[in-house]
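Internal ticket - ligand job 302, NAI:
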Amino acid sequence: VCRGFSSSAVRNVVIKHVTIIGGGQMGAGIAQVAASTGHSVTLVDTNEDILKKAVKGIEGNLKRVVKKKFADKPEAGEEFIQKALQNVSTSTDAGSVVRDSDLVLEAIVENLKIKQDLFGGLDKLAPAHTIFASNTSSLPITDIASSTNRLDRFGGLHFFNPVPVMKLVEVIATSATSQETFDSLLNFSKKLGKTSVSCKDTPGFIVNRLLLPYIMEVIRMYERGDGSKEDIDIAMKLGCGYPMGPFELADYVGLDTVKFIMDGWSAANPDNPVFAQSELLTKLVAEGKLGKKTGEGFYKYK
Ligand code: NAI
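stdout (structure tokens):
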């Protein structure tokens, strides 16, 4: 854990009111979990249609959760859903809602400039005690935070997809994140029912720094003709006990996402062979074969 200069504003903020910016896959998932665990959540996106869809998705997911969790207590289940939904409000104007937030968590498009512009603007509007955090998978938290004047109250909270199912949160401290901020983020993760790990602000933090080079080496292994896709997947599932083989996993994550992250890292670290390009991956992405979501990646899907 990094100890930066301490915030003069507030110590150990207990996070109750959360603004989540970006109501896509990740933001909606985080909103669902935060609302289910008693936080008041404002979900922000660029237009009402996206927000409506996000809330509908949350409601559908909650119904599925309740079916399992409250199988023999349908009334308690209904109450759980209503309580969680009451905790969620929506807005298309982040500036007006951050005034009441203990935490502003961003899960918008993976673009440094857009994230910087967002946080730079909100920094002037949010109260002094408000902690800012990004759910970025591949951008340095330090670079995103640099557009603000609250470097001590800025960290990373990296969730995994699908958020309600995946147990892990990576909590990231930059060299300027204060101990108080870091502790608040750890406590928040715990309140969400997640297990957290402490990470430094290095490319890919822990999980993706190991996962993406693994996937890239798997693709290169296949390109060299050292094994078939099917055999490599079977080998890693049965030999390592992994629930998915690496080609299945790459198709699930999206080959465009894998390539996008690797491109960013190889540009920033051109001499590191671990981040080198793969011709096959470039070709598949150029052909629009992005994995499960487009019906074809390394495998074909019905
Ligand atoms: P997504 O494309 O599903 O959702 C992004 C949402 O942000 C969209 O609804 C979009 O309308 C909204 N948005 C874009 N710019 C905005 C702005 N300026 N203000 C308000 N809303 C804005 O993307 P996804 O997959 O949810 O990813 C979001 C972030 O989470 C990215 O930074 C990504 O790297 C990170 N992440 C993604 C994971 C994944 O498996 N998809 C896993 C962990 C992190």
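Auto-summary: Residues 48-69 form the longest helix (22 residues). Residues 21-27, 44-46, 50, 107-110, 114, 118, 135-137, 158-161 surround NAI (CB under 6 Å).
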